[in-house]
Design a protein that fits this description.
This protein has 212 residues and is mainly α. The chain contains ten helices and five strands, in the order H-H-H-H-H-H-H-H-E-H-H-E-E-E-E. The strands form two sheets. A three-stranded antiparallel beta sheet has the order 1-5-2. A two-stranded antiparallel ribbon has the order 3-4. Helix 5 crosses helix 7. The chain is elongated and about 65 Å long. The protein starts with 5 loop residues before the first helix and ends with a strand.
Amino acid sequence: MRPFTLKSLYEFLRYIGGGDSVGKDRRLRELWKVALNLGFIREDGGITERGLRFVSAYEKGDGGTIHKLFMEALEPYRVIYGLVSKGVRQPSELMTLSGFNVVVVDVVLRLIREVEALGMSLHGELWELFEKVLFDKYKELVKRRWSKYVTILDLLEEVKRELRFPRRVVEEMFREFVRRRKGDVVLTGSPAGDVAGFEIGGRRYVYIMLKT
């Protein structure tokens, strides 16, 4: 796996999209192979629909779409992200459990950080998907717990597992959801104060009830 960043990949696609040739430039030829493996370009150098989605997502700061594209097309990203989501953080552990070498692990970890820093689009299809999954998982937890009040952290963990989004992104989108849908959301703390909570607007809440 050749090292690349979101920015370098974006600039490369814009470059060849303008009809320019990679020629004998070593770096451009490496990015050509990366883009080809991701399905972002064809053998003739034309940008594919997936490539156009990446370019558009990068320009909009839509890390969610880029995350989904990488999860679908980049096996090292999919495998290592899965391990990171389970709490594995040390590169040595990631190498052992994934079977990838230090270069691959380093590249993927940097990509994950880039995607998280880019953020997720809080509108459009991605937002609709987030809301749908949030409500679906809430209903599942209600049936499982026999209570309309479920813990926020449990709900967010279910949503993260389903969407396979970075935790910080799920938390950001949840805070935005509460802001947008405050009339449909009831948040409470824990009377005993012995259950882990989630901070929203400077206050810590533990349970949530959604009006469905």
